[in-house]
Specification:
This protein is of the alpha/beta class. It is 34% helix and 19% strand. It has seven helices and eight strands; from the N terminus they run ββαβββααβαβαααβ. The protein starts with a strand and ends in a 12-residue tail after the last strand.
Length: 213
């Protein structure tokens, strides 16, 4: 039986789904020596998931630089605290490396990291663009995961302070889950593209389709 997917996922169904929780080990990286060791391992891999977090500003007169870079493998996630590290030499090498870096809304992530240090992005794959091949129009990470993999990604920590002296367990779990989710989505999108093993349900009529009374 083919998988049923929707061009737009019904947000009222999100609360009915089980929450996605990253099951692996999480490492918080705060020094360049730690970053160098972590990146040596990460750049030996063909594919990782990435995401970033920035301290929210509740004033239009103030903004913050990106504070966290999350890099997830299948079994572990590394949280690079950019408010301590900046875009260090090892992080820059990773961003310009051959390793495929899968994420969502990568234009924003690249822009925010470039504001800290200019680099030449290489081998970034945005699942929000890739998913267009399936006819999906609702591209928020939360809805994509619910639509394609049947679980809900909690956003409870999204507006927390990512420049806090110590990240809470809840923040670390949230950050790791977002990056790890991108790996899972990428693999499922690739599978569906290759196998055509899905049925797309159109939830709205096209704008030019006339109603029949």
């Amino acid at each position: 039986m083919k998988k049923t997917i929707y061009d737009k996922f019904d947000k009222t169904k999100l609360s009915q789904l089980p929450n996605l929780v990253f099951p692996g080990r999480i490492y918080v990286i705060v020094s360049e020596s730690e970053a160098k060791r972590a990146m040596h391992y990460i750049m030996s891999l063909p594919l990782v998931g990435i995401d970033t977090e920035t301290r929210p500003s509740f004033s239009k007169y103030r903004s913050y630089k990106v504070a966290l870079l999350q890099v997830s493998t299948e079994n572990e996630c590394f949280l690079f605290r950019l408010n301590h590290l900046g875009i260090s030499a090892s992080i820059k090498r990773f961003l310009e490396s051959e390793t495929i870096k899968v994420g969502a809304s990568l234009h924003d992530d690249i822009h925010m990291m470039s504001a800290r240090e200019k680099f030449t992005p290489r081998n970034f794959v945005d699942i929000q663009k890739l998913v267009e091949c399936l006819g999906i129009k609702d591209k928020a990470l939360k809805k994509l995961y619910a639509n394609l993999l049947g679980k809900n990604i909690s956003k409870a920590q999204q507006l927390s302070n990512w420049e806090a002296d110590i990240l809470t367990d809840a923040q670390k779990q949230y950050a790791a889950t977002d990056a790890w989710a991108c790996i899972n989505l990428y693999k499922e999108i690739q599978r569906l593209i290759e196998t055509k093993d899905y049925e797309l349900i159109i939830t709205e009529k096209p704008d030019n389709e006339e109603s029949i009374s």
